[in-house]
Amino acid sequence: MISKKYISSFILATALTFAACERVETEPRDWILDTLVWDDKDKNATVAVFFLNNIYSYIPDGFNRINGLGGDFLETGTDDAIPSRTNRQAEYYTNGLISTVNNPDPYWGTSYAGIRRVNIFLSNIDKVPADPNSITIWKAEARYIRALLYFELVKRYGGVPLIGDQVFTINDDLSIPRNTYEECINYIVSECDAVKGILTPEPVSDSNWGKIPRGAAIALKGRALLYSASPLFNGGGISTNANLKALMGYPTYDANRWQKALDAANELIGLNYYALQTSFSGVFTTKKNTEIILAKQSGNNFLIENYNAPIGFGSPAASLGLTSPSQNLVDAFPTITGLDITDTQSGYDPQNPYANRDPRLALTVFFNGQTWLRRAVETFEGGLDKPGGIAVQTRTGYYLRKFMADFSNNTTYTNQSHNFPLFRYSEILLNAAEALNELGRTTEAVTRIIDIRKRAGIRAGTDNRYGIKAGISQTEMRTLIQNERRIELAFEEHRFWDIRRWKIAETATSGSLKGMKIVKNTNASLTFTPFVVSTMKFSNKLYSMPLPYDETLKNNKLIQNEGW
Description:
Elements: H1 9-22, H2 34-37, H3 46-56, E1 81-83, H4 92-95, H5 108-124, H6 132-157, H7 181-195, H8 214-229, H9 242-248, H10 256-269, E2 292-296, H11 303-308, E3 323-325, H12 327-332, H13 359-362, E4 365-366, E5 371-372, E6 375-376, E7 399-400, E8 420-424, H14 425-438, H15 442-456, H16 474-488, H17 495-501, H18 505-508, E9 511-520, E10 526-536, H19 549-554
Antiparallel strand pairs: 1-3, 2-8, 4-7, 5-6, 9-10
Helix pairs in contact: 3-5, 5-6, 6-7, 6-8, 7-8, 8-10, 10-14, 14-15, 14-16, 15-16
């Protein structure tokens, strides 16, 4: 984030306190008096920029956020992981306990609160005598965040009320119906197109680092179009009610939606700025790099390590091991040759399961035998990192490794860059591959996947196809692309939404979520046995989230999603 975005919230809190002490409020006020925020004598727009910085805070995060800071990853509500702590709300998505009053990730109130603040900003910023060019850019940034918040709503609920630039007062009628899915997607795309030429162009200077760049608008547009082209939304909705069908997606299929998604991906690729980094792990620990398009900015810290590294690394490391990746996810990683572990030619050994695997596996999960803080990770039964007899330890035989710096030779953790990636270039390549394949251009799709596998460290093979068989069919390539997204984008909040938009959630999150039981024998050899950790449940109503119960009470024009 640019330096202004680190202004202490104490200033705002103090201003709020003084304003609140002036008199009893007779109307709602946002933080501080309007006359101070939109000061016609403030040539530097100091307080107005505070207001914009607060809008930036509504950009979503994706680390241990379910149940608040130190909570669980959203992926622990999928087949990729399970919380190390039992009876956590994230598991409601896989055990059937979600309801209109019991949803761990509603996001409705947060999104509309952010949208309101954007509209307040847009309706008032011209009163401030700041540099006109700066004001234009600030408006574009605010509009982008508003479009992003609408997308967060749409991917959860389908069509939602679009309120434009309106700032409601306590006297306004807030009974507003939902817009159709198509109207919401068109709005998000049009906003991205409107601001992309105004936002900061790449390369972004160090002094402007943290400001929303042009590429972020194209990336958001591309993701919205990719989702809208996908099976769940592109004529394949589960709703039986005609009105809900239009709210939850397009009532009929149109192949041209895949072309629009491809065009958006190619538009960003065509900027010729963003590129894959040489190191997969370095993407997440280097604050500024050409693979990250937009990230949630934060100060350097070692919270990811504290919360998620194996529990045996105690003081001074203090690791809590809150996330247990599943055997289902581990099995999704191919071997170093790019072949699936079920392929008889892959060389996979079930009793030496981590040898000669896709290098991304060791950078995504901790497994037994890896080196961390100068010792081997011990997730065998009775090992230092799975001792038994304590409340919180791995439930699967694995811990989360992704997003962490390399502390294999350290004795403790040090502050690192941990900015959650909202959009990165590898997703754009995967988007392009998916759209190309759905358009029947499978050969071209292969080249995009090869780019990603090459960077990952997969071996080229004698045919230079990185484990992708010659003559692969569209159906086979679809499965491969879906798996490549799963492992490349693991724990970046894609799997939860991908399995829904692909309409495969009833398969992916039904049945067994597995772990690996490792027994150390008397001769120090190890025996590996997969086991069932939990049984997942999925019903079709979970393809969309339930509108919050209190919102449907306040607004009787909101139609609840099917099944809720």
